[in-house]
Amino acid sequence: MTSTDTLGGARGTAGPARPGDLAEPRDLAADLLTPEARQDPYPFYARMRSGSPVHRSADGVWYLTRHADVEAALSDLRLSNDRDRMTRACVALGGDLKALSRLTDRLGRVMSNTDPPDHARLRKLANRAFTARRVEALRDGIQRIVDQLIDRAVQAGPTTDLIEAVAAPLPMSVACELFGIPPEDRPQVKSWFSRFGRLSEDIDKSEEAIGQYEEYLAGLIRHRRADPGDDLISALVATQAQDDRLTDSELLSTCFVLITAGDETTANLIGNGTLALLRHPDQLARLRADPGLIRTAVEELARYDTPTQAIVRVVAQDLEIGGRTLREGELVYLFLGATNRDPERFADPDRLDLTRPGNRHLSFGNGPHFCLGGPLARLQTEVAVGTLVRRLPELRLADGAPLEWRPNPLQRRLSALPVTY
Ligand code: HEM
After folding, report:
1. pLDDT of 80-122, one tens digit each?
2. For 316-349, b where at least 16 C-beta lie within 10 A, e where not — what string?
């Protein structure tokens, strides 16, 4: 979860730079918004890691790109997730971030936008309901959904967009199962989700969709309170009843975050991961020959082309990183995508190796806010990628148009992944 989906500090005026171009002065952060970086940000990260690993952009936002710095930052309580601090910092920057902060502000107190002690309390309550057993119980259902999506794609023709056919609909369908959203409501929920996915493109429409979705969720919570079922909302309602410290508004925000946090991120892991395999036929052949590799393969796919490229923090207390002083109130982007290719941490980091040992990537974060839904995201990716590889032996990239990436440097997402089988 990030509080914003645009880069605050990357609005400099510097033109595109070649990754190896070390000419200074220039705002390295601005390079991340260029079309070249959208296609492949990793050479730009390499340049930042070696040239300016703790980088202050033209408008005062910090960019951290080294594994060691980001790993430490993720556990450093002087770097805050607090919603109000974040809103103040975004408003101070103005522009897109000011508008986006309206959305952050709308969301109530929830684990992703709080610091201790509230964070631990909210997270514990969600943890109690969102158990490993509940996730594992979804395996057969996920397999059924994946098989249906692949059947439909194969029937539709020899070429398909794998994002639209499998990667995007899967997490949404799984979330609906998990939360017990009635089948007749799913098209409406899906349309709200697709509007959240375009947050930075149309803030007003997104805000309207968020309001309608919150109202819908509030109704669902009332219904489950009166008539509990076997779903995650009923489990969260039961948790609230056991522990009177969870307010109604916190319950609503927790449901909101749990349903939305895994939607785009999981789709990105499945899409980027499948693309990485298709571009590395030797690794794809390895996985075909030994499907038991799928677990370590998913970890490597998450490292190699990181779905959530960066997350944001706000400085709560001055601190030093890499010899630079970060001041209270300043925003900090932690570039997980850059850390996952750091040669100080990973041998031969630009190589895809499905059996990579000691793969301590940061794709799901680290420290107190590490991803609560990691096991669910991994399970969906294992089943989706494993099934595509098993069922479609001729799967390959469709010839023709170059691949397009969405213009969001914080979430790495293909606009489409055309494949044939
Ligand atoms: C591939 C898919 C996913 C990726 C790459 C991902 C990534 C992340 C990252 C990097 C964080 C840390 C954010 C921070 O430190 O500020 C995070 C937190 C979180 N994720 Fe995920 N996530 C994924 C899927 C999911 C799913 C499926 C769910 C829920 C069903 C989920 C729920 C959450 C929640 C609730 C948090 C906030 C935890 C906290 O603040 O304590 N995520 N995720």
Report:
1. 999 889 888 888 877 666 666 666 666 778 899 999 999 998 9
2. beebebeeeebeeebbbbbbbbbbbbbeebbeeb
- Amino acid 105: pLDDT: 67
Cβ atoms of 414 and 174 within 8 Å: the answer is: no
Q: For 33-168, where are the alpha helices, taking DSSP H only?
A: 35-39, 42-51, 67-74, 83-93, 95-106, 118-129, 132-136, 139-156, 162
CA atoms of 376 and 143, how far apart (whole Å): 13
Is the model's pTM score more than 0.90?
Answer: yes
How many A from CA of 22 to the centre of ligand 1? 35
d(CA 141, CA 81): 34
Q: Is 377 in the pocket of ligand 1 (CB under 6 A)?
A: yes
Q: Domains of the chain (ranges plus CATH)?
A: 28-420 (1.10.630.10)
Q: What is the pLDDT of residues 346-385, one digit of tens each?
A: 999 999 999 999 999 999 999 999 999 999 999 999 999 9
Ligand 1 within 6 A of CB of 260: no
